[in-house]
Amino acid sequence: MTHRTSLSRRGFLAGAAALSGAAFLPKVVAAGPQFELTAMRAQAQLLAPPRLATPVWSYGGGLPGPVLRFKQGDRLSLRARNDLDRPTSIHWHGLRVPNAMDGVAHLTQPPIGPGEDFLYEFDLPDAGTYWYHPHMGGAEQVGRGLTGALIVEEETPIRVDRDLVWMLQDWRLEPSGEIVPGFDSPHDAMHGGRIGNHVTLNGQPMPRIEIAPNERLRIRIINAATARIFALDFGPLAPTVVALDGQPVAPHAPEGGVVLIGPGMRADIVLDASGGAGAAVPVRDLFRPDGAYDLATLAHGDTPLRANAPDWDMALAPNPLPEPNLTAATRHEVVFNGGMMGQMMMGDEAPAMTEQMRQGRMWFVNGRASDGHDGPPLIEAKRGSTQLIAMENRTGWWHPIHLHGHVFRVISRDGKPTMHREWRDTVLMAPEERVEIAFRANNPGDWMLHCHVLAHQSAGMAALIRVADAA
Fold this sequence. Notes:
By secondary structure, this protein is mostly beta strands. 6% of the residues lie in helices and 39% in strands. The protein has three domains: 14-155, Cupredoxins -  blue copper proteins (Immunoglobulin-like, Sandwich); 166-300, Cupredoxins -  blue copper proteins (Immunoglobulin-like, Sandwich), CATH 2.60.40; 326-467, Cupredoxins -  blue copper proteins (Immunoglobulin-like, Sandwich).
């Protein structure tokens, strides 16, 4: 890396000493005039020594890639270089960027070929937790490690003792530590995607994270897995959700006390270290009841940071998002079909879907399989209009549905208004669930709407939304 680097001024206050080794933390990059980010091959110790390191793909040689930290209102100027032997790109997941900067190869930009580079430049109007990854051959490129966090700090942040980034990934590894090939497996595509057999937090298996009793943490959780859904349980500790997909939400306890987060999604939580001196609290993933496991350990030290947990305000200031006008909204019905154990469409769509399945497509949006680059748009919207999308999941699988270039409100689930009407860029749909979302189409261009289980996306669960440039 050839650019200036520094630790965030508040994210790692005396906190660096409170972690079990600096290797746990991704490299942090401060905003500068322009810097470079190189996709390359690297080695990562995904399995405990003495087992060998795993060959991975990486941004800048580390795993995950460096945390890019900016202030709200800054301008990002980054030259992406490709030292891999195949084309790539960088998508800025969740950021409202100009269409030409969205990083979708073959749609918004040409691929970055081996030995080539591409300059990304755009403003950062929204504070929050975001991430970056390729949008070309994503199931493999993300699955081999090409991920990193991008943090846009609020002008007036909430008060915490430490601000941490947790990037969650899973890996399908051989006993030797090599990554199992076959990222285009039809079996994975027809089911829940490529679920790994090994999970890491910031590139490490089961890290032990040292915290001080009564310390207050802001933890920015990013699910960078290609298919795995996490349901994080913090035991006796009580997380408070303060942002979802980077967007502030009224501080609240997660449903059932568990932080549910699908691929591509983020959750900012505030966590008080209330376990008591010497307590070792496991963080467990409970999404699969028959396969719960420990993800990390929060190890309380012997010396409290203060006598009691602090009583500081947790409410974040809202971002300048255009509110959808539901009374003037254009409504669209969108049905997701396909995969194993799902309902197939009947009537006129059935023959076309059958033919597409013969061609290897397995997932459908309103009866059509697409890579999101071809064919007519699913929705054509005038700039400034409000679009309401009623989505129905007629499949037997969970789908995190991601919209590029915009942020939407989640209006209802199965006909019931949502409690927080939260802003999101990715919404997790359970099997057979109906979800309504609404957004103001104010960012012109062709934008993808797709499932972020990347094997589902590549097998057809993608569509195009066109926002006209003219007002």
